[in-house]
Amino acid sequence: FPVPPGTREGDKLKIEERGHAYPDESGRPGDLIVIVRVVPHRILRRDDMDIRCTIPITAFEAILGTVIDIPTLNGAVQITVPAGSQPGSTIRIPGQGVSGDGDQVITLQIEIPSQLTDTQCGQLRDVAKRLPEAAHPITGAFRRSEDG
Question: Which of helix, strand or coil describes residue 123?
């Protein structure tokens, strides 16, 4: 039985003549009423007609930008993550929501590298020292406000 697109948790679907037979002489089968229960997807979640997901990317992908594959209801699509993306940034894919209505909204989760060697930490410190203050406008503004 095909479930109509856009069906929600708790919706009732009627399947005609698939229930128990009526107790009278007609023997005609009754209708079957199905209450929909939705099994959560491990990545995608529904928000009205939009589909939402949180996708991890590396700090370097966020800094430099990248192209990644994103799961959608219609299969994987490629999206471009802009250079300089911040944690919690969202990317919207129009028309990839429920039944082609709504959008798919991707929230970026930035993964900071861990278990770096002393050499790698030193290299990153060298790069950080060479960055202009404008490279960190949010942090700079916060620290300036703390000064006075």
Answer: helix
